[in-house]
Amino acid sequence: MSEPLVLISTDARGVATVSLNRSEIRNAFNEVLIEELRSTFERVATDPRIRMMVLAGSGKAFSAGGDLNWMRRQGQASEKENLEDGYRLALMLKTLDILPKPVVGKVHGAAFAGGIGLVSCCDVAIAAEGTKFSLSEVKLGLAPATIGPYVTAAIGARQMRRYAVTGEVFEAAEAKRIGLVHEVVASDMLDQAVEKVVGELLLGGPEAQAAAKELIRDIVGRPIDEALMRDTGARIARRRASPEGAEGIQAFLDKRKPSWAGG
């Protein structure tokens, strides 16, 4: 029996580690991996035992993007099949992007093309020194279409215009400078750096974290007008009145940990 293309393990704290598992081809996407990732993300989103997710790649690289054999097959498929295939990739990325729990990207080796799309959908992304990045689609006569909204949101239109058009390879330090990753650490410190962020995330209220992620999606690009002020005012009012909000405030006043943090 062949190994699953996506591995998932969950520890006693509710931290799920999801790993792409096509290490022999640097975790490149094909239609099966895409579907397994989407279903795994849905499982993480709906499992009440899971507090957050760490997204990683098995072997020597995070993800090299699209499997060339898969893309060659799709190039010979019908227009209808190609449209459906493209939508499945877009749906997988959307499922990750709107996942209502914190997602930490643990990036090493290489993140090319669709791999950069995954990184861009993580709430926190940490890369090991020496990791290579590239929006390499143009070098194959393609465009970074399905990942485009997420990468542009991460690095901005100006940087996207450079890297999407050149397809050049850039280093982890540049990925940090342009906002694709938040931290760059020595390779032997990657696990420790991810664990530090996980520890910080465990201190936050799970419902509040979901609300914060939803808030960011909903306010980006909106004018600060009466409607937005009413909206955000209502959101904070709901959080204050929620059981989780009441517990968090009381725990702070009592100088103890809230219940979700092992209090």
Total discrete domains: 2
Residue windows where pLDDT falls under 50 for at least 5 positions: none
Q: Alpha-carbon distance between the termini? A: 44 Å
Strand order of the largest sheet: 1-2-3-4-6-9
- Which term fits the overall shape? globular
Rg result: 19 Å
Q: In the CATH classification, which architecture of the largest domain applies?
A: Alpha-Beta Complex
Main β sheet profile: 6 strands, mixed
Number of DSSP E strands:
9
Gist of the model:
The protein is of the alpha/beta class. It is built from ten helices and nine strands. The chain folds into two domains: 6-201, 2-enoyl-CoA Hydratase, Chain A, domain 1 (Alpha-Beta Complex), CATH 3.90.226; 206-261, Lyase 2-enoyl-coa Hydratase, Chain  A, domain 2 (Orthogonal Bundle), CATH 1.10.12.10.
Descriptive account of the structure:
The chain has 2 domains: 6-201, 2-enoyl-CoA Hydratase, Chain A, domain 1; 206-261, Lyase 2-enoyl-coa Hydratase, Chain  A, domain 2 (Orthogonal Bundle), CATH 1.10.12. Helix 1 (31-46) packs parallel to helix 3 (79-97). The chain has 263 residues and is of the alpha/beta class. The protein is 49% helix and 15% strand. The protein has a 6-stranded mixed beta sheet with strand order 1-2-3-4-6-9, with helices on both faces. It has a 3-stranded mixed beta sheet with strand order 5-7-8. The protein starts with 5 loop residues before the first strand and ends in a 9-residue tail after the last helix. The chain has 10 helices and 9 strands.
